[in-house]
Amino acid sequence: MELTLLGTAGPKGWPQPFCTCASCLGCTGPVVRGPACVLLDGTLLLDCGPEPAHAAARAGHPLTGVRRLLLSGPAESAPLAWLPAAGLVEVIAPSGPPAWLPAPSAGGPQWRQVAEEDTLDLDGHRIRVLPGGTPGRVAYEVTGTDGTRLLYAPPSTLPPEAEAVRAWTREGGHYDVVLLDVVSWPERLATLRRDGAVTEDTDVLAIHLSHESPPGEELHRRLAAWGARAVPDGGLVRVGADASPSPRPHRTLVLGGARSGKSAEAERRLAACPDVLYVATGGTREDDPEWAERIALHRDRRPDTWHTAETVELTRLLAEARQPLLVDCLSLWLTAVMDTHGAWDDARWAAGGREAVRADIAALAAAWRACRVPVVGVSNEVGSGVVPPTPAGRRFRDELGRLNATIAGESDEVLLVVAGQVLTLRSLPSPRSPWACA
Ligand SMILES: [Zn+2]
Predict the structure, then answer these.
(1) Are the CB atoms for 249 and 54 separated by under 8 Å?
(2) Cα of 211 to ligand 1 centre, how many Å?
(3) Alpha carbon of 266 to ligand 1 centroid (Å)
(4) How far, in Å, CA of 401 to CA of 425, rounded?
């Protein structure tokens, strides 16, 4: 199966016309994206923008061989003014034709209204209509002449119920390529992974990009963390032949100051992964409403499928983990380690406390290196501000600096979050095998 992505944005495109946001003003040239539209094997068109013929011509694929258009939503919401001149054999949609469209007797295309679970054989492609998450919207599964399978699921077309997704894959196994609004809803990718519809061999392509998506390289960095990718408009994808996304990082350290957005970034990195174990190292603090509020805020942000462990026994967890881990955060872990060894006290620090703390850090680093599941750790970047007034404060600042440097040295990817912006400090290629997301 061969796809040409004629458009990869949402209905308004990216840039959104006349929008003055920084993202839209900066979106010029080859990164301009039109409304979602996919040309499949030169004969089928999945959804369309207002001028698919021009998009196709720019991509070097005239639409003269296209026989059918498949719409995923209501005809009224699709820009179909070009349709009467296109000479298509048939339009397939979950709704009836718009009133203005000429009847087939007057030169208009045949219109076939489909319902969930309909199966059609068209030009060698087997099409299955999948139940949409919203009335009037459907997703499509396409099996090509070579047996490769595609899932096309624009927004509002994926049912939230896991059982419905499982039913899709019961017969055919995983999809070879999935087109999905990954950026707005990475949790849906997690659902597809959990139910076996998406595996490490699936090429996940982001569609419905918009000015809400992160601009520039940040888009590609974020998608890569989710095991997905974005291709430019006009991009050609040979299903099963093109390389799948580059492997996701195995061990990631996210650094940042207070309220920098480091925890949100760490959570985002695992958002397309089902069954993450969130490791809260801060524990519970009785009679501290501010702490309770912070914890509640963090918890509300996390998907329901994630589990939480409140523990400082990180070294053991890293060795035993069988699911992806998010550790928030290493600075609180260090606080607990210093508590354990009485390291705040000058005399105890001098009498073996230092060695005990550093032994625990070395053991953590060894466990981090040996960890067999994806792990994302959060830590505070301190030491750039005022010098702490007490010896104990300075000691903690110094040991945290050492801890961060040690863990960073054992990580494939190190990020620094400043004012919500992510800087990549280190990005090393990592092998495929450690990822066992599902
Ligand atoms: Zn905009």
Answers:
(1) no
(2) 5
(3) 26
(4) 15
Q: Please identify which of the residues 125, 174, 220, 298 carries the catalytic annotation.
A: 298
What's the gap in Å between 416 CA and the centre of ligand 1?
Answer: 26
- Band (pLDDT 50/70/90 cuts) for residue 397 is very high
Q: Give the highest mean pLDDT range of 128-132, 346-350, 386-390.
A: 346-350
Residues 52 and 201 in one domain: yes
Q: Determine what percent of the chain falls in helix, strand and coil, rounding each to the nearest 5.
A: 30, 25, 45
Name the domain count of the chain. Answer: 2
Tell how far the Cα of 11 is from the centroid of ligand 1, in angstroms: 13
To 10 degrees, what angle do helices 262-269 and 289-301 make?
Answer: 30
Cβ neighbourhood burial of 281 (10 Å; 0-12, 13-18, 19+): buried
Quickly state the pLDDT bin for 438 (edges 50, 70, 90).
very low
Write down the residue that tokens 């039913």 correspond to: 167
What is the domain extent for residue 145? 2-238
- Residue 66, SS3 per DSSP: coil
CATH of the domain at 305: 3.40.50.300
The answer to whether 125 is a known catalytic residue is no
